[in-house]
Amino acid sequence: MAAEAEAQGETLSYEGLRAFEGLAAATAGEGRDPVNAPMIRHWCEAMGDTNPAYEGPDAIAPPTMLQVWTMAGLSGYAGRTGAYDDLLALLDGAGYTSVVATDCEQEYVRPLRPGDSITFDAVIESVSPLKKTKLGEGHFVTTRMDVRAGGELAGTHRFRILKYAPRRRGADPPAPRAPERSRSARPRPVVNRDNAGFWDGVAAHRLLIQRCGDCGTLRFPWLPGCNACGGQEWDTVQASGEGTVFSYVVMHHPPFPAFDPPYAVGLIELAEGVRIVSNVTGVPPEKVRIGMPVRLEFLRVDEEYELPVFRAEGERV
Fold it and tell me: Is 223 left (phi over 0), alpha (psi -120 to 50) or beta?
């Protein structure tokens, strides 16, 4: 299958695939049901989420339910266009017949409440060049869906799949990444409207924690709404930089050129009471212990990028 896909893939023009970028995947789609309390209750019970913001007369829907109100069965949803099906058919014809969902990203603009009528539009946002993965060669396809409540934008849902040709069983695995790849090629975080302020703070050597404007609860990581009361207003406080190792893991595998295993990844409990995942430095990874005091510092990983890490107190490089 992989060899067949390679042969067929030679006739698949990337320019032809990119021609689908910007085409509508759905227009004027409608949710089958309004936002409603029973679905919210089922969702919260399945997730074990007991937040009081999701029940009662002033309830809102959990933000992560954004896509739920747009989903339909195998028959598809109203408003679906042929462009997305045509793109997948083109990839199928070139031998990229398998599919796996890889990731999604959501942005929340306003809360959804029981009774809201949902409409949506979707667009094919991008098609990647041919990529080599452990599953096989293929193309990543990203769609963006704008979800509206009463005609007002409520949030955006980006969904990415890999359409690939599976490697034949027993075939040689993909070649390792080129050894000349520099360790400075550290993976970049996803920066969006909800967390951009955090990364602006890091650039200024400030570790910022969100504080709810309604109930004062501190929260980390950054979120569009308060976990405690559902409030949407917030400001920030700067962390003192003091903390302790709440939990940790020592990474040995898989190897990645940007990192040098073994290294310790810790769940750090800050003095302010919130927790952050980061590297523990200053001691060999086998010396990291739960309860170890640590202090914030900023590690430059390349010319443009710094990360907050935590050094064991009293230790020196």
Answer: beta
Q: What's the CA gap between 113 and 149, in Å, rounded?
A: 9
71 contact partners, CB below 8 Å, separation of at least 6: 77
Residue 178 has pLDDT above 50, yes or no: no
pLDDT tens track for 251-310? 987 777 788 889 999 999 999 999 999 999 999 999 999 999 999 999 998 888 899 999
Res. 72 pLDDT band, cuts 50 70 90: confident
Asked whether the CA dihedral 63, 64, 66, 68 is positive or negative, the reply is negative
d(CA 216, CA 227): 11
Judge whether 209 and 237 are in contact, CB under 8 Å. yes
Q: Is 0.70 surpassed by the pTM of this model?
A: no
Q: Indicate the residue type of 157.
A: H
Whether 8 and 94 have beta carbons less than 8 Å apart is answered as yes
Specify whether the CB–CB gap between 66 and 40 falls below 8 A. no
C-alpha span between 156 and 259 (Å, rounded): 33
Among 201, 218, 227, which Cα is nearest to 296's? Answer: 201
- Helix, strand, or coil (residue 122): strand
Domain annotation for the chain: domains and CATH numbers: 2-166 (3.10.129.10), 196-312 (2.40.50.840)
Cα-based distances in Å from 181 to 31, 177, 303: 47, 7, 16
Q: Which residues pair with 245 in a beta bridge?
A: 268
CA pair distance 49, 39, nearest whole angstrom: 13
- Say how many residues make up the chain: 317
Round to whole Å and give the CA distance between 83 and 97: 17
- Mention every residue, 6+ apart, whose C-beta is less than 8 A from residue 51: 44, 62, 227, 228, 230
- At position 248, the amino acid (one-letter code) is Y
